[in-house]
Design brief:
mainly alpha, two-stranded parallel sheet, about 0% strand, elongated
Length: about 170
C-alpha cells in the first residue's frame, strides 16, 4: 500500500542553519529577550505582567530587536509597545543569565556522565582489577612466587638464550 506513495525531498526552511555546527552552549539567536522573534518571551513578560495570557493579551514587542514587522500588526492594535528599550535590555540580561545557569548545569551533568563512563571503562581495563575471584588471586600469587623463585643465574641464562638463541642449536 505504501509503495504507491510518492517520495519527496526535504525542503529545509533555512538550509544555512543546518550546515552550521551546532553546539549545546551556543544559542542560535542574538536577543535573549525575544530570541530574535520580536515578541518578548512569555516567561519574561510575566515578570512585568504577572497574569499575562499569551493567547488573549496583546503581543509585547521587544524594542531591542528591531526586525519585527510592526507596520502590518500595528493597524489591528495587537501589539503592546509599553516595553521600552531599557526594560527590554533588562529582560535580555535576565534571560541571558538564566540561559547561562541552565547551560552550565547541562554541561556539568554531561561532564559528570562522561567522567563516570570513562572511569567505568578504565576500571574494566585496569591491570589491577579489583573484581578478581579467589581463584584469580591464587593464580596471580602462584605466578609471582614462581618468578621470585628463579635465581639470578637462571635469569642471566634465560636472557642469554633469548637474546643469542639457544647454545645447543
Amino acid at each position: 500500500m505504501t509503495e504507491n506513495l510518492p517520495q519527496f525531498e526535504r525542503l529545509p526552511i533555512n538550509p544555512k542553519k543546518e550546515e552550521e555546527d551546532k553546539e549545546i552552549w551556543q544559542p542560535s539567536w542574538d536577543c535573549f529577550c525575544c530570541q530574535d522573534t520580536g515578541q518578548i518571551q512569555a516567561h519574561l513578560v510575566r515578570l512585568i505582567i504577572p497574569d499575562y495570557d499569551h493567547n488573549r493579551d496583546r503581543i509585547p514587542v521587544c524594542q531591542g530587536y528591531n526586525k519585527f514587522y510592526r507596520h502590518n500588526l500595528m493597524k489591528y492594535g495587537v501589539l503592546d509597545t509599553r516595553f521600552d528599550l531599557f526594560l527590554c535590555k533588562k529582560l535580555d540580561r535576565i534571560s541571558h543569565d538564566n540561559w547561562k545557569q541552565i547551560t552550565q548545569k547541562q554541561f556539568e551533568k554531561y561532564r559528570n556522565q562522561l567522567n563516570f563512563e570513562t572511569s567505568k571503562i578504565s576500571q574494566s581495563h585496569s591491570l589491577t582489577n579489583t573484581n578478581r575471584t579467589g581463584n584469580d588471586n591464587r593464580e596471580v600469587g602462584q605466578r609471582k612466587a614462581e618468578i621470585e623463585a628463579i635465581n639470578t643465574e637462571q635469569w642471566k641464562s634465560m636472557r642469554n638464550d633469548y637474546l643469542a638463541g639457544k647454545k645447543d642449536e
